[in-house]
């Protein structure tokens, strides 16, 4: 191998590493944005209505047919 091919290979390797690091950063940013959007959607869900006083879920069963 001559010196120029070794230098070209090293340069290509460094370029690939930089590109991979940039891709990972962009992916992390996209995941953060998606996480924030999901949290906003979850916070937008209205609270369930309060149960009437003295009743509990499943406390009244209609047994008449």
UniProtKB/TrEMBL annotation:
InterPro entries per record: YjfB_motility
Pfam families xrefs: YjfB_motility
Protein name listed in UniProt: Motility protein
């Amino acid at each position: 191998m001559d010196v120029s091919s070794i230098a070209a290979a090293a340069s290509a390797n460094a370029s690939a590493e930089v590109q991979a690091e940039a891709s990972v950063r962009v992916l992390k940013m996209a995941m953060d944005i998606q996480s924030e959007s999901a949290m906003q959607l979850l916070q937008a869900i209205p609270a369930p209505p309060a149960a009437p006083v003295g009743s509990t879920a499943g406390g009244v069963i209609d047994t008449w047919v």
